[in-house]
Amino acid sequence: MKNFKTKQPGILAVSDLKTAGGRAIYWLFFIILALAAFAALLPAIWTICTSFKDTQDIYNSFSFFPKNLTFDKAVGRISESWKYLQLGDAFLNTIILSAGDLVINVIVCGFGGYVLSKLKPKGSKLVFMLVVWTMMMPNQIRLVPNYISYLAFPFASDTHGVGINLLDTYWPMWFNAGADTFAVLLYKNAFDGLSDSFVEAAKIDGCTNYGVFFKIMLPLAMPIVIYQSITVLSGAWSDFFTPLLVLDKNTVVPLVVYRLQSDSNVQMNTYFMAFVFASIPPFLIFAIFQKWILGGVNVGGVKG
């Protein structure tokens, strides 16, 4: 109860927590949130426990935790599963895909926000309106036109020999990362909060628009860059549908894990271990950026 004295204002004030009713409401919400957190963590814990079980225990035993699990046995299970699954190439390809998504998203969307915020060329209001309008368009409507454009980029034609076939390459995912309209609005909002004097002073010193963007605007909008890094990397690592649509080979982790279910030679505990391996990078992203994830990113708080 000592922490109640330093509690930040919210639904319940400090004065409310001094009453029996206020404390009862506080603990009621605490129990509800604790149960919700447990329900969210239970599938992940069950997956990890199942990956360390013997195959016979998975089908013949109702125990939640693996039986007779030792440190050496756990290390052996991890080593054997990694060698059998051969996920090294898939991890490398997914890292390349995620890095490309991040670079293109920051550069293209960031520069788009900079143009709409500071340069404001003729017709920028119409472009801004179209950007906002595309956010309201369902993804299903864009699915078929996007796929046709991948067949013969950039003409979207079914005529042979016209355009470039981008299927079985990473370019469709990278183009999608550069067409993130929400990211454009985030950068525009951040750049709107920066004084125009930064741009004017840099141009007086002979800096080009590209120099102003990379040397001044992006560093000052670093909270947005960090937020987009978290979002893009997490989304790229877990993206399943787009690679399934455009990639023919088992080149990224989500596709490899998905197609393991049709392999009758893969034992169930090894299959669950693949889930554990695939979950490690998102966990590392959370562990590294948890300060910004839990604390939130003030996308509109950058001031000049």
Structure notes:
With 304 residues, this protein is mainly α. It has 2 domains: 2-77, no CATH class; 88-122 and 164-295, MetI-like fold. 69% of the residues lie in helices and 0% in strands. It has helices spanning 20-51, 55-60, 71-85, 88-119, 124-135, 139-151, 171-178, 181-192, 196-204, 209-220, 222-238, 241-246, 253-260, 268-295. Helix 1 runs antiparallel to helix 14, helix 9 (196-204) packs across helix 10 (209-220) and helix 11 runs antiparallel to helix 14. The radius of gyration is 25 Å and the shape is globular. The relative contact order is 0.12. Pfam families: BPD_transp_1. Keywords: Cell membrane, Membrane, Transmembrane, Transmembrane helix, Transport.
List the SSEs and their pairings:
Elements: H1 20-51, H2 55-60, H3 71-85, H4 88-119, H5 124-135, H6 139-151, H7 171-178, H8 181-192, H9 196-204, H10 209-220, H11 222-238, H12 241-246, H13 253-260, H14 268-295
Q: State the helicity in percent bands.
A: 55-70%
Beta-strand share of residues: under 5%
* Poorly predicted sequence stretches spanning 5 or more consecutive residues: 296-304
CATH topology of the largest domain: MetI-like fold
Number of strands: 0
The overall number of domains is 2
CATH superfamily of the largest domain: MetI-like
Structural class by secondary-structure content: mainly alpha
Please describe the biggest sheet, giving its number of strands, its sense, and whether it closes into a barrel.
none
- Rounded to the nearest angstrom, the distance between the terminal CA atoms is 41 Å
How many helices? The count is 14
Q: What's the CATH class of the largest domain, please?
A: Mainly Alpha
